[in-house]
Amino acid sequence: MSRLIRTSLLAALAIILVPLSVPRSEVLEEPIAIVGDRVILRSEWEAQTALFAMQTKRQLSNPAVRDSVSKMMLDQLINDQLILLVAERDTTLTIASSAIDAALEDHIADMRRRFSTEEEFRAALVREGLSERDLRVRFRRDVENQLLKQRMIQKKLAEVNVSNGEVREFYNKFKDSLPNQPAAIKLSHILMTVEATPATIENARARLTQILAEVQGGLDFSEAARKYSEDPTAPSGGDLGWLTKGDLVGPFEDAAFQLTPGQVSGVVRTDIGLHLIQCLESDRQRVRVRHIFLSLSPTAADSAAVIARADSVGRAARDSADFCALAQNYSQDKESQKNCGELGWYPIEEMFPEFKAALETAVAGDVIGPVKTQFGWHILRVLDRRTQRILDINDDWDRIKDIARQDKTSQVVSGWLAEIRQDTYVEIRPLSGSVTLDGAGK
Predict the structure, then answer these.
(1) What is the DSSP string of 344-396?
(2) Can you spell out the DSSP letters for 66-134?
(3) pLDDT on residue 66
(4) 179-214: b or e for each residue (b if 16 or more CB lie within 10 Å)?
(5) 43 vs 281: CA distance, rounded Å
(6) Per-residue pLDDT at 432
């Protein structure tokens, strides 16, 4: 299993791409469980356990904690496969290729944001012997499966609702054990991302155009790739091997499949940078290509320009300017931009550490920033603030209703999974032997 691992559906209905950290020599490909005709690897189970422990700060050095977390993660991985088995048999569920592409790109972009710079991200890939194409090929099926399982759960739970009577009954039964309404803060923000400027992009395009001229003048393409390309494939002359339709992002794939053997493309731009592509072989569904890649990483001057602009907008916001107008004119967060930059309520303990530190003593009306996070520079405006308190059915009806619905949803999912499990072969294989679970062999 790759160091880039996926979380279970029930833990989070999304792919989480984990920073590369588990030594490849430690990966164990031993089966730990069988679900129907599917195998869950011990390496996958151990990676999920380690990830959950890291996220929840559980100490796996404690044997009782390790056993509890390990069992929970294995149950979730088994449930994942049970849901996938049902989803694949449901002919009404389909996932468009464009949706898979979009989700895959979102998760690779999320992984990229975990690194301080594009260079650090690409260096991590090089250390792994991977390219972005490898990531897309490797995780496309995982992304499709996650979307399919998510769609299956949405279908199953579409009609789950709670009546007002059920909410009151739930509150009266559990009010002494309900979580407190956490301390929270309501924010608006203006986000300025650090991106390559048009001048930086044009400089990279001019450089790649010059490389193309050298190739057209007789420089061997593979030699040019080794000399100029910023992709991990550079040492192998930029060879990406055989690609099938759907392996890569649209612009690259479109250009690659239009080439004939020996032909070199013009400059092709994708979300990650600029490419020259050479076709080596092709048929109707596959193409073998080389490429030369230049990234579009922001320069120091690009970063400095964004910081200066963020400082200027921050001063304007503090000088009683119209924050809504500033957000609509300057923010690069397209979602919140439409609503004057408003982000809504956030529990203080769940905020970005950078936000939490900057807003520690802020009160309603304060404008703070710019504050730097992995997403860029933020100007923050405090709209309201509330302290931790006990939930009250009169003041917190919507919150209590949501908790009641989550509880009912959990019961529905648990019952559904129990039904699936009764009809599915499920077996766990601990290191010392083999134990068959309820429902095995059916």
Answers:
(1) EEEEGGGS-HHHHHHTTT--TT-EEEEEEETTEEEEEEEEEEE--B---TTT-
(2) HHHHHHHHHHHHHHHHHHHHHHHH-TT----HHHHHHHHHHHHHHHHHTSSSHHHHHHHHHHHT--HHH
(3) 87
(4) eebeebbbbbbbbbebbbeeebeeebeeebeebbee
(5) 37
(6) 46
Structure tokens at 21: 């950290």
Residue identified by tokens 């080439």 is 259
Question: Residue 177 pLDDT > 80, yes or no?
Answer: yes
Spatial CB neighbours of 371, under 8 Å, sequence gap ≥ 6: 354, 355, 358, 377, 378, 379, 380
Closest CA to 291 of 274, 272, 313: 274
Structure tokens at 65: 């904690």
Average pLDDT over residues 159-176: 92
Query: What is d(CA 281, CA 278) in angstroms, rounded to the nearest whole number?
Result: 9
Q: What is the per-residue pLDDT for 249?
A: 67
pLDDT (0 to 100) of residue 284: 74
Say how far apart CA 324 and CA 333 lie, in whole Å.
13
Q: How far apart are CA 330 and CA 342, in angstroms?
A: 14
CA gyration radius, the chain = 26
| 351, amino acid identity | M
Q: Among residues 196, 90, 105, which one has the least CA distance to residue 148?
A: 90
Angle at 123 between CA 122 and CA 125, to 5 degrees: 65
Per DSSP, helices labelled H in 158-279 are: 164-174, 198-216, 221-228, 250-258
State the pTM of this model: 0.56
The answer to whether 299 touches 196, Cβ cutoff 8 Å, is yes
DSSP, collapsed to helix, strand or coil, labels residue 1 as coil
Question: Strands 426-428 and 435-436: what pairing?
Answer: antiparallel
Domains of the chain: 24-158 (1.10.4030.10), 184-197+300-386 (3.10.50.40), 198-295 (3.10.50.40)
Question: 428 pLDDT exceeds 60?
Answer: yes
Q: Is 398:328 a contact under the CB 8 Å cutoff?
A: no
- Rounded distance between C-alpha atoms, residue 384 and residue 378, angstroms: 18
Of the chain, the percentage scoring pLDDT greater than 70 comes to 89
Tens digit of pLDDT for each residue in 391-424?
A: 999 988 998 999 999 999 989 989 999 999 999 9
Model confidence at 278: pLDDT above 90:
yes
CA distances in angstroms from 358 to 9, 290, 364, 366, 382, listed in the order given: 34, 47, 14, 11, 11
Do 243 and 286 touch, CB atoms closer than 8 A?
yes
